[in-house]
Amino acid sequence: MKKIPHRVYLTEEQMPKQWYNLRADMKDLPDPLLNPGTGRPITEEELYPVFCEKLAHQELDNTTRYIDIPEEIQEFYKMYRPSPLIRAYNLEKYLDTPAKIYYKFEGNNTSGSHKLNSAVAQAYYAKEQGLKGLTTETGAGQWGTALAEACSFYHLPLIVYMVKCSYEQKPFRKSVIHTFDAEIVPSPSETTEIGRKILAENPGTSGSLGCAISEAVEKAVSTDGYKYVLGSVLNQVLLHQSIIGLESKAAMELLDEYPDVVVGCAGGGSNLGGLIAPFMQDKLTGKASPRIVAVEPASCPSLTRGKYAYDFCDTGKVTPLARMYTLGCDFIPSANHAGGLRYHGMSPILSKLYHDGFMEAISVEQSKVFETATMFAKQETILPAPESAHAIYGAVQEALKCKESGEAKTILFGLTGTGYFDMYAYQSYMDGTMKDYIPTDAELEKSFARLPKIPGIQE
């Protein structure tokens, strides 16, 4: 029996040359985005005031299965890709499990996460269109950092609206973003009409990704030559992130391996959607039947406790309406430490797949997540981001099930990034001051009651 190496790297020649569009293999597509003004399916041209034209096209393209990665983006990818597929031998030994555990590590770049995969694509298309600059939001700061890197490379100005509690918890994220010449604003802020309105209604708010999205969109549409870009949730982002899963599958094929279970953390859906893409393709086309497990924070449980309904993607209610699992766009999550997972909704693609039974979801309290994260760091020497640690928790639970049953299943999870900017969170866990927050049913019902009414569609 051949020894499987700890780390497997594809060569540059083996890297994917195309992104995979999961929608092309979905027999039942996600419901279309709706224009909030008309209540009708949005057209590509109606997205142009907000998005780059080619990104708007990718957003609504449900039929093109594979989309060529522009050569310039391929060359950028080669600065930090391919990323390694790692066999977690020490974790397996510690858990005393017969399961084989693999993880795809996306933290080997300055942003410290998978976010750069889509950031470079969106910055490239913006530069190609001749834009003057971009705006965006960021939760934990990984997306803001990644986009700052990409915009700096293409000499594009960038304004980042960062969720206020994360901005305060992670001051060095601001320093890194400034290193790449981007501007960063804690959200909600006084710099936009929507921000001022949110602050007037809730002066002490810790912010949310929904708030930050609203401010970034307003700034983009009111600034000449600027467009807005988003790091998660959107179809185009899951398309770009498919390189994670494509590389994972290619590396596992070199080892003659295939996962029985694929586990990913779930916030807006970018990492999860990218990791599972080719394995979900196999499931949709009947080639294989891996279990797909999403792991989300108990403080922001959109899949496990949300409603499958049309909702705004932002708190200010200026974005198109998406049918997704949502906690309501007015829902403000607690200021927990997994800032990248503090979004009220979920990718429409992933929401549809979950609704139709193609994937599972669990939620977990953050103290359990950090317990798992510290254990993993001691075994595998990588300090994981809090977001990534949700996936580790899910993988560990699957491995422990194998220990009980004696099954030697193959488990793949996504290690989306590193936690070196999350030391306040780790310290909070270690000194015993970390608190778990789970919203009550009454709190969620209050938010659900404010879901938009759409004549003939959602009364």
Automatic annotation (TrEMBL):
Coiled coil: none annotated. SUPFAM superfamilies: Tryptophan synthase beta subunit-like PLP-dependent enzymes. Keywords: Amino-acid biosynthesis, Aromatic amino acid biosynthesis, Lyase, Pyridoxal phosphate, Tryptophan biosynthesis. Belongs to the TrpB family. It comes from Blautia hominis. Residues 80-417 form the Tryptophan synthase beta chain-like PALP domain. It catalyses: (1S,2R)-1-C-(indol-3-yl)glycerol 3-phosphate + L-serine = D-glyceraldehyde 3-phosphate + L-tryptophan + H2O. It is an enzyme of class 4 (lyase). This is tryptophan synthase.
